[in-house]
Every structure is written in structure tokens, then in C-alpha cells.
Amino acid sequence: MSPAHPVIAYASRVMTIARQKRQKLAPCRGIMRLMNRPAIDSLETLRQQIRAFAEARAWEIFHTPKNLVMALSVEAAELLEPFQWLTAEQSQNLSPAQHEAVRQEIADVLIYLTRLADLLDIDLLDAAADKLVINARKYPADQAHENATQYMERTDD
Fold first, then answer.
1. The whole model's pTM is what?
2. How far is CA 22 from the centre of its chain?
3. pLDDT at residue 58, rounded to an integer
């Protein structure tokens, strides 16, 4: 095939555009590369850091709600692994290595959840506050105290 072939010309153009995009993002990537540990003091700051991280890598095309929910599900499942086969007591007394594994998986869950909320324009703290009100109605303290039964299974005496 000659360089004038339409497929080669198209591929060449795609590669040129990709190189141009990488060059435009280089300063941002450079900043992210130099950062050892970003200072994160709020969910808003975390959201901004995650967004910048994804943008610097051009991952927006992969970060669809569907893909993020799938990734979130995988990370939540990975959170089970350090607890597998532990007794209830052992799960409350993790070794330093187990604790760090749990810490890392919780961070992954939080990152994916924050990214998903960002894409769907959901304020996590607002949503959590609303959900606490709903749960307070579903599980009144006088009926739910030391009672693990689902609200649908309880009878109103």
C-alpha cells in the first residue's frame, strides 16, 4: 500500500491528532507527575483531583457511567478479599498488611464513586444527607435498636 492509501492517511491523521493532544496536556501531566501526594481536604477537592487525573491521561472516553459502575463493583468486590475466611473478631483486628489492603480498596471505591458522582452531577454529601433521612424513617430507633431485621420484615406492633 502506498502512503496515499486512505486507511494509512487516516491512521496518520489520527496519530498526528493524538500527538497534538499529548503535547497540549504535557504541562498538566508534568504537574501530576511531580505531585507526590495531593492535599485533599474535601470531597470537592477530591473530585477536582480525580477529574484532573483522568483528563491528564485522556481517560474521559472510558469514564462513562456504565464503565464506572462496573469498575466500582469490581473494587467493592475486591474489598471483600482481605476479610475472606476471617472470623468476626479477626475482621476487627486486622494485621498492618490487611489493614493497608483494606485501606487501598476503600480508596479505590471512593475514587470510582466520586468520579461517577462527578459525571452524573450528584453531590455526594447532599445525597448522603437525604439518604440518612430516608433511612431514619425506614428504621426508627425504637424499632431498629439492636434489631437487624429488614424494615419490610418487621411488624408494626
1. 0.71
2. 25
3. 96
